[in-house]
Amino acid sequence: MTIGVGAMFLFGLNQTDSGNLIVNLFFLFGVVGLACILKFTLEDLGLKYINAQMQRHVVLSLVIFTLYMLFYIFAIRISALKPFSSSTPWGLATYLIVVIAEEAYFRGALYSFFEKRFSTKTALVVSSILFGFFQAQQGLRGVISRTFTGWLWGSVRYSTGMIFLLVIPVHFAYNSIWLLFEGNWDNPPVWAIYVLPMIEFVIGLAVVFLHNRQPKNN
Question: Whose CA, among 7, 69, 73, 171, lies 20 to 30 Å from 180?
Fold first, then answer.
């Protein structure tokens, strides 16, 4: 990302749609490069199709997707589509790159790095915390909130071993709906700010608990 930021300023693209896209493309390239250097397999990155876990992966992803849609409808009160502008496709393209890179890094490479050296529980907790700190530009409240978000999304990787549907629809919808819809984005209800992370934590905890109760195959 640092190289991307440098390239953005070098070509005078700072604070532009194309500049943001370039930065995040470098982020994605960095994640791919890291995976190659560490010789991660598709399974390590959560990108191997596991037929026995696919139904659970779909159900958990739909539960999370529904949670965010309910939050946007009843708390943010999204109403209508925003007027389409030239920045809209740039924004959607950037978000697509962002969600692929972040999932491949946090729920993929970083998760596997700690899982191989410590345990799946450590991988889940550490990757969630680091995901929160990655959003430090949002302030302390954003760090805490995104940590719980990372915990919930990480519980899907923990339980199913896959991240396919965390990319789309979960993460992409989570990021892009504010770009597309009118709503009370700047001043959401105070209760909603605190209730959503609590719900994310409880659902993630339930997913981990139920997974741990399953009989282990010998």
Answer: 7
b/e per residue 36-62 (b: at least 16 CB within 10 A):
eeeebeeebbbbeeeeeeeebbeebbe
What pLDDT is recorded for position 112? 96
Domain locations along the chain: 42-213
Per-residue H/E/C for the chain = CHHHHHHHHHCCCCCCHHHHHHHHHHHHHHHHHHHHHCCCCCCCCCCCCCHHHHHHHHHHHHHHHHHHHHHHHHHHCCCCECCCCCHHHHHHHHHHHHHHHHHHHHHHHHHHHHHHHCCHHHHHHHHHHHHHHHCHHHHHHHHHHHHHHHHHHHHHHHHHCCCHHHHHHHHHHHHHHHHHECCCCCCCCHHHHHHHHHHHHHHHHHHHHHHHHCCCCC
Q: How does pLDDT run across 125-154, given as a tens digit for each residue?
A: 999 999 999 988 888 888 999 999 999 999
Structure tokens given for 33: 């490069």
Tokens 């990108």 — which residue? Answer: 47
pTM (2 decimals)?
0.92
Do residues 167 and 105 lie in contact, with contact meaning Cβ atoms separated by under 8 Å?
Answer: no
